[in-house]
Design brief:
Blueprint: H1 2-13, E1 31-46, E2 49-55, E3 61-64, E4 83-91, E5 102-110
Parallel strand pairs: 3-5
Antiparallel strand pairs: 1-2, 1-4, 2-3, 4-5
């Protein structure tokens, strides 16, 4: 039973299933900044990641797992999606091999 559950999780990891099929691929290691929207929380993206989907100016949705430590951004109980934000991140595909659009957030601010 555990193997079936693990396989089901792995199957969902590789799809980057954020509901956005017409995205522009982002380049690993490149820094991106702009304005966008946090569109939803993601708790089951893969075994080693989870977090929130961010719709970017670059017409791509990315997944980030942590708010930057130097940021004043916090998720409040009364927040509702989408949350408009200003962001800065690096694409970091080395963090989790199971998802192609995982990013490391450098800056995040509510608009």
């Amino acid at each position: 039973m555990a193997a079936v559950c693990f396989c089901a999780m792995l199957g969902s990891c590789n799809s980057d299933n954020d509901g956005n099929d017409d995205h522009i691929p982002l380049q690993p290691g490149k820094y991106y900044a702009g304005k966008g929207q946090i569109i939803r929380a993601e708790y089951m993206a893969c075994v080693c990641c989870g977090g929130w989907w961010l719709k970017t100016e670059q017409a791509d949705s990315v997944l980030f797992g942590n708010v930057p430590e130097n940021s004043s951004f916090t998720f409040e109980p009364d927040d509702s999606f989408p949350i408009p934000v200003e962001y800065g991140f690096f694409v970091d595909s080395s963090v989790c091999w199971q998802i192609r659009r995982l990013v490391t957030m450098q800056t995040l601010k509510k608009l």
